[in-house]
């Protein structure tokens, strides 16, 4: 299905396969630093039985890893596309971008809503989002519908 985007001309929203590949690429790229930071747990001092020597240090490392992961994911999935023409690195590589439903630039709030709803769209190994994209006229996942965004060919 084609969506006429004000100021841009005809843009195809039928980019489901590109979106699946893009999501895999972006998931790997955005997870590298959080996973590497989780390796800090290997550096924690332990007793001979494998138990942690300092529970306070473990709590501090845990909190740091979680905060770092959230900052990285928000930066990658929300800030980057909001500032970079509606694209993540994977979207740029696959030639797709996010716009608002009116065809203009999607804002930071819309990107945040899309990101939060990845939790729902990602259920059952991503089938919830995939089925939504396959059955909706403009190939939107639930996050797109809630944020009033479209993913189009760049």
From TrEMBL:
User: Per its UniProt record, what Pfam families does this chain match?
Assistant: RDD
Alphabetized, the UniProt keywords read: Membrane, Transmembrane, Transmembrane helix
Question: Which regions span the lipid bilayer?
Answer: 20-44, 56-79, 112-135
Q: Does the keyword Nucleotide-binding apply?
A: no
Source domain of life is: Bacteria
Give the location in the cell.
Membrane
Q: Domain RDD, which positions?
A: 16-147
Q: Does the keyword Amino-acid biosynthesis apply?
A: no
Query: Which membrane topology term applies here?
Result: Multi-pass membrane protein
Instruction: Write the protein's name.
Output: RDD family protein
**Biological classification of the source:** Bacteria, Bacillati, Actinomycetota, Actinomycetes, Streptosporangiales
């Amino acid at each position: 299905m084609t969506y006429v985007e004000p100021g841009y001309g005809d843009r195809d929203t039928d980019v489901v396969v590109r979106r699946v590949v893009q999501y895999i690429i972006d998931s790997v790229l955005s997870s590298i630093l959080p996973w590497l930071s989780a390796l800090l747990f290997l550096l924690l001092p332990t007793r001979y039985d494998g138990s942690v020597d300092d529970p306070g240090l473990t709590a501090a490392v845990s909190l740091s890893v979680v905060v770092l992961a959230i900052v990285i994911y928000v930066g990658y999935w929300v800030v980057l596309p909001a500032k970079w023409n509606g694209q993540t690195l994977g979207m740029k590589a696959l030639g797709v971008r996010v716009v608002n439903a009116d065809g203009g630039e999607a804002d930071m709030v819309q990107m945040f809503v899309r990101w939060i709803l990845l939790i729902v769209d990602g259920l059952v190994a991503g089938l919830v989002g995939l089925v939504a994209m396959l059955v909706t006229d403009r190939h939107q996942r639930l996050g797109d519908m809630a944020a009033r965004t479209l993913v189009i060919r760049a």
